[in-house]
Write the structure tokens for this entry.
Amino acid sequence: MLLEIENMSASYGKALALEDVSLHIAPGEFVAVLGPNGAGKSTLLKCISRMLAATGRLALNGTSLHAYAAHQVVGLGICHCPEGRRLFPELTVLKNLMLGAYLRSDADAVAKDLERVYALFPILRDRASQMVSTLSGGQQQMVAIGRALMGAPKLLLLDEPSVGIAHRLKHEIFDAIGQIRDGGVAILMAEQDALSALRIADRAYVLEHGHVARHGPVAELSQDDHIRQIYLGVA
Ligand SMILES: Nc1ncnc2c1ncn2[C@@H]1O[C@H](COP(=O)(O)OP(=O)(O)OP(=O)(O)O)[C@@H](O)[C@H]1O
Ligand SMILES: [Mg+2]
């Protein structure tokens, strides 16, 4: 198993945000995390990338991640594209992308990965020397995903990649995420757009109040009455 989480809990001060979450991801698998605002989706991703301390088992390829700090897990192949993108708006697109590769010394492979990012999002090649602040929200999301890819992930954590993005670009971004997965990268994607997520992922977990309320293959979840009523808006 690529990622194994068992009985993971995490809190902010005294407030418990995740409780007894168990989840796994196989190599190359595409897993979605659904759930309403405040359910704990971002918290889960932050625990995996060690930005937030958690209890319980958290292992990548059988190795516990608890001994690793946030800046070290990138080197293990976990790259996090965070909520709100967290880019450097006054730096160029290229500089932002290259920040994702700052730990790498394999210059040839880095150059190839940059080409891959440009192939995935051609607009970023055209805008490479432009400041990120001049891009649209959707284009900035492409930079954020591209930067995470520049870390050469085995596991890509995507936090709401489609939020606040115009319909056409959203389609383009989900399409690119599908291509990333086809390239063999496992993906854990938090997403509020349940319909889109259930369309492109292999399996999904539904978080509610910090607990896993449902999980299973997307075909199964799409037929689940609770999911259909609450998340897909159909009776
Ligand atoms: N830095 C923080 N300090 C205190 N509480 C926090 C912090 N970040 C999140 N929380 C709380 O933890 C819970 C889970 O938040 P989290 O951000 O993981 O939810 P989410 O599912 O990602 O929601 P959204 O869809 O709005 O992004 C919420 O009750 C939230 O208010
Ligand atoms: Mg969130």
Q: What stands out?
A: The two ends are 36 Å apart (CA to CA). The pocket of magnesium ion (ligand 2) is lined by residues 41-42, 83, 159-160, 190 (CB under 6 Å).
